[in-house]
Amino acid sequence: MSTKLKVLLVEDRAADAELVLHELRRAGYDPEWKRVETEPEFLAQIGQDWDIILADYNLPEFSGLRALELLREREPDLPFILVSGTIGEDNAVANMKAGANDYIMKDRLARLGPAVGRELREARGRRERRHAVRALQESEERFRQLADMLPQIVFEADPQGTLTFANRYGLKSLGYSLKDFEAGLNLTKMVAPQDRENLRRRVGEILAGADAEAHEYELVRKSGKTFPVLIHATAILKDGALAGLRGIGIDITERKRDEEEHRKSEERFKLLFEYAPDAYYLSDTKGTFIDGNKAAEALSGYDKKELIGKNFLKLHMLSPGQISKAAKLLLNYVVGKQTGPDEFVMRRKSGETVNVEISSYPMKLDGKSVALGIVRDITERQRTQEALRNAEKNFRLSLDESPLGIRIVSAEGETIYANRAILDFFGYADLPELNQIPIKDRYTPKSYADFRERDRLRKSGENAPSEYEISIVRKTGGIRQLQVFRKEILWDGQKRFQSIYQDVTEHRKAEANLQETLLGLRKALGGIIQVLASVSEIRDPYTAGHQRRVADLARAIGQELGLPPDRVEGIRVAGLIHDIGKMSIPAEILSKPALLSKIEYALIQSHAQIGHDILSEIEFAWPIAKMILQHHERMDGSGYPQKLKGDDILLESRILAVSDVIEAMASHRPYRAALGMEAALREIENGRGVLYDPAVITACLRIFREKGYVLKE
To answer: Which of 300, 359, 287 lies closest to 330, judged by CA?
Structure first.
């Protein structure tokens, strides 16, 4: 069963808001939501009893950081989560330090549900802790007087006032040591001079048998500083005779500080009441004013002295037509019911009128029933609402004139709204004419079958695609291709579905033509590659077919490694022309039937660099020139021409290196007979991890020994 959730979305894109709401529903929530995208809209929603706020980081006229700042000033405990697609790590950390509870990337919305659940639980915990603190504070207030009498300084004194006992806390509070006590301390000398006579008189009364009563004195610490203490003292009887007095002194410094803070707090509250932006007033149950703040004076035009003791009826603040409505509100005061907000037209002292909204709250003041009223000038708000209505009207007009087709349908599939573009796409004059034609006749057979499948998925509660294409049959019989974007929206306050249509007929035709052109270019490129491979082999007839066999083996290894098809094709193309650089080497060296000299071998080694230079200016879809440059590099850096190591060598070049060695050893060469496939496989196996990539070796051995690969003739 879904959990109710009141969520405020700070988001300028409705589509992103829908994604967030979808994720919340998927996480088991039933969101009651509102979307805002400007600071005024956001401020208007603070205090509206939201459970959580989800905010984008960047908005055109606002930002998540600003929203967080405004929220923490007003509601510091309300959960706030950033949901953004652009926030960086530094910004995320800064926002968390500023008070954000979490941040969720829009491409990882699956985290949203757990994060919301966690923050709601923590918020609940904070509320419970606040309630506990509030209960504790109330308890502390109830037992404050009792707590004030708890023992703090415990002492005994003889009839002359010399202390005979003092507890450790008492000595520490007064700044004396045990040695000071043993040397003798007099209670009278510990009292401030202005209180000493009062203390002596009180000691005499106690020794004479007077009841113990608390008296406040200023005690003097050893350092000379004074602090207020409330002393409770009683007589000490010994063998029936008076032997001195015993007392408890309570440091009341904090209590006095609290009293001063309470006095200041009352002053602050009075200032808040007096200078609140809304008009506040107190009245009795008959509508007679008791008090009011400065905003009440400004709104009504009357001084406070003119309002107090006067009834709003006698001041003619309401028109006769509003008297009965006001009387019902007064009746609610009597029975203790809250009222409002109710709208009135109030007449000011000057005679001009102003639109106001009044809320009232019954309470007790000095044992009498009174009402606290809050009056807000809503003139500007009503202007804003009128502007919003006009904006909505303009928005409807913009929908009607949009070049994109826009259609609103109910959950049952009934078309509620269709703009002019929709009618133009289908070729009908108006919506009734369009609705008369069955969907089956408006779609091509294939598109109608797709529509039935989407409809089945929606009705069964499964996820149906929100973006798709349809082929429609116009009234004239023509076929058009439309791209459709479908999403859930609120329309007139109800759940509806909006579909946006874009005519992509010409675009699809252009794509088809482009594909044909690309296919032709790919065929032409293949032909060029074959020509380059053939020219290379003409120069070295003893290795005819070598490049083709290397290319085929490299492709097989790439496929075994699970590389994408396009990347495998790049390896194959590089293999077909990997020895193209040998075109610059004399033919007599290429076909020499004996071992090469150092100079001749150096010339042979230069073919990798020459091949790279020949192909570097050709724009392939793959790094062909770089693959050819590196195909003689080795994992340990012993290869050429750049002495590269490990991952500095392209994976494609590592595959070509293994394929090249196997084909060369398994085939005949002018200077030696073919060594055979097993010898070639042993060679690369022995070089695993030193000369050749281990993963490439594993894939190569697997296709030969397990899958029966054979080098092609």
So the answer is: 287
Distance of CA 166 to the CA centre of its chain: 61
Does residue 418 sit in helix, strand or coil?
strand
Q: Where are the alpha helices (DSSP H) in 143-215?
A: 144-148, 168-174, 178-183, 193-207
**Neighbour tally for 211: CB within 10 Å:** 7
CB of 460 closer than 8 Å to CB of 453: no
**Per the structure block, which two tokens stand in for 288?**
């007679």
Q: How many whole angstroms separate alpha carbon 620 and alpha carbon 4?
A: 57
Residue bearing the bigger pLDDT, 249 or 589: 249
Name the band, by pLDDT with cuts 50, 70 and 90, for residue 413: confident
Residue 548, CA atoms < 13 Å, CB-side half-sphere: 13
Rounded to the nearest 5°, which phi and psi values hold at 510?
Answer: -65, -40
Rounded mean pLDDT, 662-680: 76
pLDDT tens string 672-712: 566 788 888 999 999 999 999 999 999 999 999 999 999 87
Pairing of strands 353-365, 494-503: unpaired
User: Which 3 state secondary structure label does DSSP give 274?
Assistant: helix
> For residue 489, which amino acid is it?
I
Rg of the chain's alpha carbons, rounded to an integer?
46
Residue whose structure tokens are 């002292």: 349
Domains of the chain: 3-141 (3.40.50.2300), 147-257 (3.30.450.20), 276-377 (3.30.450.20), 387-503 (3.30.450.20), 521-705 (1.10.3210.10)
Query: Cα(238)–Cα(246) distance, rounded to whole angstroms?
Result: 12
Count Cβ atoms within 10 A of the Cβ of residue 324 and give its class: 0-12 exposed, 13-18 middle, 19 or more buried.
Answer: exposed
CA distances for 569 relative to 548, 616, 622, angstroms: 13, 18, 9
Structure tokens at 13: 């894109």
In this structure, the dihedral spanned by the alpha carbons of residues 604, 610, 611 and 616, taken in order and rounded to 10 degrees, is 160
Instruction: Give dist(CA 579, CA 628) in Å, integer.
Output: 8
pTM (2 d.p.): 0.35
pLDDT tens digits, 614-623 = 888 888 889 9
